Amino acid sequence: MYKSLLLAGLGAGLVAAPAFAGPYGYGAPYDGYRGGDDAPAYARVVHSEPVYQAVRVDQPRQECWNEPVTYRDPRYDNNVAAGGIIGAIAGGVIGHQFGQGGGRAVATALGVAVGAGVGANTAAANTPRAERVGYQQRCREVADTHYEDQVIGYDVTYRYGGRDYTTRMPYDPGERIAVNVSVQPQGY
Fold first, then answer.
1. Is there a contact between 150 and 53 (Cβ–Cβ < 8 Å)?
2. 109 lies in a domain?
3. Which candidate in 19, 21, 39, 99 could, as Cys together with 103 as Cys, close a disulfide (CB 3.0–4.6 Å)?
């Protein structure tokens, strides 16, 4: 029985020992902890708040509309050409009647030129309008511009050795953050 009491007392002492450890043991009074000489030190994150910035966003979109367009109807162009040809023939025949000898060729040529002009102008004046109106879809690309709040970082407050520190990080570190700890002797 004495042996079992001794073993029970030793076991309870081993379990309770960490609770009474000094400032550098497992029950250290500071918030940060370090795993060993080569392991990084960690600090507890107390607060993490996102930092926003308004960012311009250009999003292209297509804008379309129907625009009236005037078309020439090529069927009516043939009437003007035919009128010019008929006028040239008639003018040539008439010019040929008035000329004599060498002047006959000049009169014929002059009759062809004048007859072609008169025939084309007469056909154009008597031909219905050679245009029609239709609609054609026109499109262009325009930018829809708006501003969005985007997270550009996090203001992080962490506690190490009983003191609070603040830094800005590009991401949310979570519950703890790795820190560099440097211990140097105070100058004499």
1. yes
2. yes
3. 99
- Indicate yes or no: pTM above 0.70: no
- Mean pLDDT, to the nearest integer, of 110-136? 74
Q: Dihedral sign, CA of 157, 162, 163, 169?
A: negative
Please indicate, yes or no, if residue 6 is contained in any of the structural domains.
Answer: no
DSSP bridge pairs for 43: 177
Q: What are phi and psi of 120, to 5 degrees?
A: -65, -45
The 10s digit of each residue's pLDDT in 52-85 is 999 898 889 999 999 988 877 666 655 667 767 7
Write out the residue range of the structural domain in which residue 103 sits: 59-142
Report helix, strand or coil for 17. helix
Strand partners, 49: 155
Across the chain, the runs of DSSP E, i.e. the strands, are 33-34, 41-72, 131-160, 163-169, 176-179
Count up the domains in the chain and report the number.
1
Q: Please check whether residue 86 is in contact with residue 156, taking contact to mean a CB–CB distance below 8 angstroms.
A: no
**Cα gap 6→12, rounded to integer Å:** 10
Residue 78 falls within a domain, yes or no? yes
Residue pLDDT, tens place only, 83-111: 677 777 877 777 777 767 777 777 777 77
Residue 13 lies in a domain: no
Q: Hey, what amino acid is at 112? A: V
